[in-house]
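Researcher: I'm preparing a figure for a lab meeting and need a structural model of a single chain. I don't have an experimental structure, so a prediction will have to do for now. The sequence is pasted below. Please return the structure as tokens so I can convert it later.
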Amino acid sequence: MKIGTGDRWDAAELTAKTQALLRRTFGPQVDADLAGVIYGYDGAPSVVARCAVSGLPGGRKTVVAKRSNLRQGHLRTEWASLLFLADIPDVADLVPTAFAADLDEDLLVLEDLGDMQPVLLGNILCGDDAPRARAALMAFHQALARLHGATAGLESAWQARVADAQAVFASRHRVHRFNDALDALPDRFRSAGVSITDAFARECADVAQTLADPGPWCVFTHGDGTPANASFDGETLRLFDFETGGFRHACVDGSFPVVRWLHSIWAQGIPGDLCQDLRRTYRDELARWLPEAAGAEFEQGLVACSIAWLAGLLALPDLFERDKKWGAITFRERALAGLAALAQLTHETGCFRCIGDGAQTSLEHWSECWSMPVAPLPIYPALRVP
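Model: Understood. Here is the structure written out token by token.
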């Protein structure tokens, strides 16, 4: 049985390689059988399968086998991330346990987090339980802040794990393409009639510098912290899929309720009052670890990272030639929502006002060009409930 077109292994081979890896790691008594495919489709970057196992320490009955289709060694970063976080008591409970890896085969064996259908953050937001959806989003932001705060100052330990795994960071993900997107931002705005002044250029340079040299804000970030990569069972929030993990400015993740969430297939609208609550929740939790989060520098970093994510939205393929549906909303709806959110944020904070004014001008220009009225995005179903 092939798991997807172009996949490197069929199901039987994936199971055999998982069993062989577990036997090398834990002994010849281990047996593994395929119990089902959790994630995988034609063109998927990876396939995730559940395996029933016997003979593992502790009597564990199932594990998850994850292997890459990209042939780029991108699971090396995830392996390094999980081992690094497992060594930090304050965050080890946030992530799956990593049992074994064959990095040359792009294969990881991880803790089975159970049935994702009822607990995946994206599914919760698209459900009908408003209190649960709000609680899940709050827990998500608290978890991100804890991840960031507990890893501040530990970059050397991370780099040691990266070296051991021979991890590579080049990928198609936009978190690795901020520089290119920021370089293109002035031309994007110029095409909308924005005057690119010296002050605007200085602000662009300041954004790039903030991301390149985060100072005390340099922490371990998920990089792809979205509703697709988090689960919440009502009490415990778990984060997974750390292929883009790495040390960056905390607000690369922390800007989720401003612009970052628009880079997800799950993106829909979040009520404005809840966005404010999520920002406050993240900041308050982060301040328990990094006192600097209570100061003005936090807002500077939040806006800078939001600008980087906005630049990524404006670099979406063919955005200015045609629109494309991705999930519940289109690329252009995302771009307009990002422009509106950034313009509002710069007005609120007073940070990067030239770029914020450019975002407002661009919003008005492209809304007219695309015949798309400026309007809030459709709210997540669970958040529409009073």
